[in-house]
Amino acid sequence: MKRNHLIWITAVALFAALLAQAGPVSAQQPTPSDNDVNRVAKQLYCPVCENTPLDVCPTQACEEWRELIRLKLSEGWSDEQIKDYFALQYGDRVLAEPPRRGLNWLVYILPIVFFAGGVVILVSVLRRMRAPAKQVTPSTPALDAETLKRVEEELKKHDIA
Q1: I need a surface site. Which of 40, 90, 92, 118 has the fewest CB within 10 A?
Q2: What residues make up the domain containing 91?
């Protein structure tokens, strides 16, 4: 009986040791599709090429960055975390939409200000166009009879009249 007892204790101890070594079990993330990678890559610009979105840039560096995006997505990173990672590595210039802080606020505010100013100018111009024109009377002084006679004589001399 003691021997049976010893086998059970050894089995339980072995099972506990294996359980302690196993660690937490996590579900494996599926491999992200090209659409998932491009969804993130469209929000980033190539740090090497000027004004080229990362999803269409043909350089080898961009190919590697798209693979890095695929890796980060498979590790469970969110789109925002990936964008923050690239902004940290290469600066805010790689972001398709500038962050809303500092002078970047001007990008969001100035178009509204210019649009409102344009509407005000347009309305004032249209109002002036619709207002009746004021009649302007000529302010030429009347010629006295003697001056008029001299002008007529000069015109006759030169055969103009």
Answers
A1: 118
A2: 34-97
